[in-house]
Design goal:
The protein is mostly helical. It has one domain. Helix content is 55%, strand content 7%. Strands 1-2 form a two-stranded antiparallel ribbon. Helix 1 packs across helix 2. The longest helix has 36 residues.
């Protein structure tokens, strides 16, 4: 990849800031992009671990009978799945049917 060309989708302002940061550090644009990519991957991996832990913990507690599955809190449907509001609180969930769960994620943009 050429240093003068940033080949990912970014606004002109983002590209300008990345180029400025590369000049400030005295490194190539590709080195700045590599560092950004590594930071993003580390964040994504940490988030995945939190999600996996929360899902596993809830599943174990459901099977053990410590947590009870409830009706959808939006429409009252009995066929529900857990929606984690915060992965650091694995047992703090909203019970939603598939349709409502999908609409919640679509509204959040997640």
């Amino acid at each position: 990849m050429k240093d003068s060309m940033i080949s990912f989708r970014a606004s002109k302002v983002d590209k300008m800031l990345i180029e400025r940061e590369a000049r400030r550090q005295g490194v190539s644009v590709s080195e700045v992009l590599t560092a950004l990519w590594r930071s993003f991957n580390e964040y994504r991996d940490l988030l995945f671990k939190k999600k996996a832990y929360a899902r596993t913990r809830l599943s174990i507690d459901l099977k053990a009978g410590k947590v009870e599955k409830m009706d959808c809190c939006l429409c009252g449907d009995k066929d529900t799945e857990a929606h984690h509001i915060d992965y650091s609180s694995p047992l703090n969930v909203s019970w939603l049917c598939k349709k409502c769960h999908k609409s919640v994620h679509n509204k959040r943009g997640a």
